[in-house]
């Protein structure tokens, strides 16, 4: 399969700005979900039912699964409400 690079003439002028904004939003969202403090906060919220993190904020397997699902659902919501535009 070939992916032609082209000269960029067919790319809309605002595409670069959209790509930069989308990448920035996704990077900020990713950082929010992977910080140890967010794992500790999740453990405080749902730690009664499932262990999300240890006392240092290191995630457990269930914590990784929970945060992956939360990241995925948040990304879907951002796409659905057109915050992220392809």
Give the SSE string. Answer: HHH
Would you report the number of β strands? 0
**Share of helical residues:** 55-70%
* Largest sheet report: none
- What is the tally of helical segments? 3
Using the alpha-carbon principal axes, give the shape. elongated
SSE blueprint and pairings:
Layout: H1 15-34, H2 36-46, H3 61-80
Helix pairs in contact: 1-3
Structure in words:
The protein has helices at 15-34, 36-46, 61-80. By secondary structure, the chain is mainly alpha-helical. Helix 1 packs antiparallel against helix 3 (61-80). It is elongated, with a radius of gyration of 18 Å.
Structural features:
single chain, 86 residues, mainly alpha, 59% helix
Short description:
The chain contains three helices and no strands.
């Amino acid at each position: 399969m070939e992916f032609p690079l082209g000269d960029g003439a067919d790319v809309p002028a605002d595409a670069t700005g959209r790509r930069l904004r989308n990448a920035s939003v996704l990077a900020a969202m990713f950082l929010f979900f992977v910080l140890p403090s967010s794992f500790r906060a999740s453990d405080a919220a749902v730690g009664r039912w499932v262990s999300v993190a240890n006392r240092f904020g290191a995630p457990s397997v269930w914590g990784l699964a929970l945060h992956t699902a939360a990241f995925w659902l948040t990304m879907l919501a951002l796409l659905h409400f057109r915050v992220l535009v392809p």
